[in-house]
Amino acid sequence: MTTWFRTYYEDEDLRLYFEADDEGWAARQVEVRRQGLRPVTAASLEEVLHLRDHADLAAMFRYERQYGVLAEGPMDGWQDQPEAAEISAEEFERVWTEARQALGDSS
Predict the structure, then answer these.
(1) Residue 2 to residue 4: CA distance in whole angstroms
(2) What is the mean pLDDT of the chain?
(3) Less Cβ crowding at N or C end of the chain, within 10 Å?
(4) Distance CA 83, CA 62 (A)
(5) Residue 29 burial by CB count (10 A; 0-12/13-18/19+): exposed, middle or buried?
(6) What CA–CA distance (Å, rounded) separates 87 from 8?
């Protein structure tokens, strides 16, 4: 079952939003710097896997420079993180769309 949630990383002043797949791995991730509400990450596992399988290393570097790096590993224990809360799919989609637009998504 897909889960959407957010947490807060105080050291970097980042609000992190995740869409976790059935196995608890990040399918999509958004990070927004609270000061100025500036998105810094909006990465997708599907896109990363496509680049890995169909593009070269330079394309992957360009993607990571533009959209950031997706978290690896299961998202176990997210409920224990600061300001953790489950969110709706609609809220995640809104944050995702805003972050992708801010980071230069042309689609």
Answers:
(1) 7
(2) 92
(3) C
(4) 32
(5) buried
(6) 13
Asked if residue 106 has pLDDT above 60, the reply is no
- pLDDT at residue 107 above 70? no
Q: Strands across the sheet with 26-33, in order?
A: 38-44, 26-33, 14-20, 3-9, 85-86
In a domain, 77, yes or no: yes
Task: Decide: helix, strand or coil at residue 3.
Answer: strand
Instruction: Give bridge partners of residue 51 from the DSSP assignment.
Output: none
State how many domains the chain has: 1
Q: Is residue 105 in a domain?
A: no
* Interval 58-100: pLDDT, tens: 999 999 999 999 998 888 888 888 889 999 999 999 999 999 9
